[in-house]
Amino acid sequence: MEFSLDTLIYYITLYGIKLIVSIAIFVIGKKIAAWVVAVTKKLMDKSKLDETLSKFLCNVIYGLLLVLIVLSALSNLGVNTTSFVAILGAAGLAVGLAFKDTFANIGAGVLLIFFRPFKVGDFVNAGGESGSVEEINLFSVIMNTGDNKKIIIPNSSVIGKAITNFSANPTRRVDLVFGISYDDDLKLAKQTLLDIVNSDERILKTPAPFVAVSELAESSVNFVVRVWAKQEDYWGVNFDTIEKVKLAFDEKGISIPFPQMDIRTIK
Question: From CA 191, how far away is CA 211, in angstroms rounded?
Fold first, then answer.
């Protein structure tokens, strides 16, 4: 009985100390991990890294550190952690295969947030859709279309296709084509177009407006009109110029050819 009691006391002392040390490793390790994450977060904030990406990276770092802390605590208790590492590896592989599309979206989201091909508020064509960007997160890009529909596009679809950012530059070029009849006065039509674009204060003087004959088509002489405007004035300049040209051409007797069909009745 004395031997058994001594043995029990021995094991309690041995493993009790190890248990206390393991608990200490876990508690202190968590505090160190939290400190590391806090320092990392401050460095990311100073570098003006996107908030979403910053939170994601901090969570990943904390999770990895926590796994190492748990393995260290178990190892101190004498547990063979090799099997745990193998199990974690197998579980990670299984989860990776099961959620490969999700992880692909997360990876694409990190790239979008890090490289910033567009930002919230930009009007873009991405993933085959066009709209104003409302939100960029780790899984998707949320856009509002011109007719106020909400579109949610997986990040992998956005990264996998060409991205057109219409808001990237402060100015845009408005390209228009106007056709006149072969019987109309070419110089009068050109001067009319120049007067219209030069009188619009929204149209920039530099680069200068460009008006020229671009094509002698089958039924019309076509003018190309290229003018530059601020980003916010693009559509206003586009629509107003078309209206002004039609009204001015009507006033000056300049015709705009359109397809016609002659029907003859044979008796």
Answer: 9
**Could you tell me which of 206, 196, 199 has the C-alpha nearest to residue 228?**
206
Q: Give residues with Cβ within 8 angstroms of 166, minimum separation 6.
A: 122, 123, 124, 125, 172, 231
Q: Is the pLDDT of residue 69 over 70?
A: yes
Q: Full-prediction pTM beyond 0.90?
A: no
DSSP-assigned beta bridge partners for residue 143: 133, 151
Torsion sign (Cα): 57, 62, 64, 65: positive
> Is residue 224 over pLDDT 70?
yes
| 153-187 per-position pLDDT tens digit | 998 889 888 999 999 999 999 999 999 999 999 99
Residue 253, classified by CB atoms within 10 Å of its CB into exposed (0-12), middle (13-18) or buried (19+), is: exposed
Helix (H, G, I), strand (E, B) or coil at 139: coil
**Structural domains in the chain?**
2-98 (1.10.287.1260), 117-165 (2.30.30.60), 171-251 (3.30.70.100)
Q: Are 203 and 171 in contact (CB under 8 A)?
A: no
Q: What share of the chain is helix, strand, coil (3-state, %, to 5)?
A: 55, 20, 25
Positions of E strands within 128-265: 129-136, 140-144, 150-154, 164-165, 171-180, 210-216, 221-230
Of 225, 219, 228, 229, the closest CA to residue 256 belongs to 219
Could you report the per-residue pLDDT of 81-102, keeping only the tens digit for each? 676 666 667 666 666 655 566 7
User: Where do we find the tokens 């709209």?
Assistant: 131
Q: Please indicate whether residue 128 or residue 5 has the higher confidence score (pLDDT).
A: 128
